[in-house]
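Re: [ENG-882] Designed sequences occasionally contain unexpected residues at chain ends

Forwarding the minimal case from QA. Structure tokens:
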């Protein structure tokens, strides 16, 4: 691959929202990624612990609620690009639900990447306040998946 093409490729990837990129051409391989650190994230408020009828809101009702700031330390983000699965197998119940208490190291989701199932573990003890992705949704690297307080 010619140097000019490599420079152009780096510029295109840098200007895009891609966080990872890999290309192989005639035995020459390039792998690039972006580290997007220290971002503040605003998410829609999700249903809280199931203590009242309001906590059983549908997705449509949740999306119409007010935006709230979520501290970075309460977000559990995807470690890779792939497909998110809420359960360990099709037809099984979700690993966690909003309101569940979780322990550090507990598997709370799965991201499939390149036909490998990668378990997503809670990074701290706490309560699942929100699940920010749907089952079988494609997720990006560093995309928030859960709010755990």
């Amino acid at each position: 691959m010619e140097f000019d093409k490599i420079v152009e490729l780096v510029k295109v990837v840098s200007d895009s929202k891609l966080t990872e990129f890999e290309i192989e051409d005639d035995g020459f391989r390039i792998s690039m990624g972006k580290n997007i650190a220290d971002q503040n994230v605003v998410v829609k408020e999700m249903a809280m612990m199931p203590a009242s009828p309001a906590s059983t809101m549908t997705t449509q009702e949740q999306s119409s609620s007010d935006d709230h700031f979520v501290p970075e330390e309460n977000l559990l983000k995807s470690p890779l690009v792939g497909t998110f699965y809420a359960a360990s197998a099709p037809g099984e119940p979700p690993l966690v639900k909003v309101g569940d208490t979780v322990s550090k190291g507990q598997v709370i989701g799965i991201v499939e990447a390149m036909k490998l199932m990668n378990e997503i573990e809670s990074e701290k003890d706490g309560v699942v306040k929100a699940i920010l992705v749907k089952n079988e949704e494609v997720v990006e690297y560093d995309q928030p998946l859960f709010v755990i307080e």
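QA comment: On inspection the terminal residues look reasonable. The longest helix spans residues 3-15. Proposing we downgrade this to a documentation issue.
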